[in-house]
Description:
By secondary structure, the protein is mainly beta.
Amino acid sequence: MLLYKYIFCLFVFLLSCASTFIVAEPAKEKLTIVKDSSVPQPPPIKWGGKTLLELKKGDYIYPRFSPSRRYLAYAESLTVNKVETTTIYLHDLSNNKRRVLLDHKRANKFAVYRVFVVSMRWLDKNRLKVSLSDGDVGLTLLTINIATAKVVKKAYIEAGEDQKQTPLQRKAKKRFPEFDPEVLDNALSGIFIKTAGRGVILQKNYSGHDPHVWLFDLSQRQVKKLVTLGKKDNQALGGGQAIGEETIFSVTRGKSHGVYVLRKNNSVEKLAQYKKVQWRPRLVARYSSKVDIYFLLQLNESYKKGHNPILHYSIKTGLHEITDCNQCYDFDIGKGKKLFVFTYWVGKQRQLKVLRR
């Protein structure tokens, strides 16, 4: 009988320990989330300046300034013989001349059904990295030397390939051994946001688990719920980025998409809300510093016409929407914040414009 009581007490003790470590619903978390009905739209501001370049004939996407700000790389979406393809250009802003880095015939070599650009970024002043979809399940990563227009590196990735475990995944599982490692791996293989020195904002997106948005503080081994979501709000975290000691992020809740800021003291404020969204929008940072960030809120799917707001958040002045662009598709800002390029829908194509102030 004594042995039975001892085993029973030990079981109760272990159960209480488990409930202490596995924090699924933190008790009475103090959050300063503004109610949806009281969230104003971001005040409008103009970038202004002089028009440096304007391209109206063609369908242009992914404009990216070089680190030196002398060059602008961009892609043109084309249809040749009823097949979607692309050409990538390099525009010299000092003399307003452009040349081809990758023509559609070379691009077609990487196609299965079609070929189109899904991302472009500068590695340094001499190299541009381009990701091309083959229209099926594959992605080709090209590194192009802009001086010679030659591909100096090429890699192929197929959807569904096993990805290596990241250092962040290993660290999270080490700091939170009481959590299911598969849940953490799943959360950190999707969209998550690294905060300033504290941890990550994530959503579990795992069957049998809650749909909420959480802060996993890796330094303090604490878990805090930031945004409460409904059962159908899976894949709701839209992305974000740390700015100094604050973090901007966005979340879809029902059919509205909100922009939030996580303060230094871990309080959360909702800065803006966009209603009647038809998919899971994304927050994409284009330029950031320790005190501000310029980002695109992709409210529409990439192939659908619609306005994607360009927003600026400053720790000092708050959130504003840049209104030089209507029916925005994408944008970029040159180093020093003097150059501003954006692409925007006109009919079924996207035109391009560069402003300098």
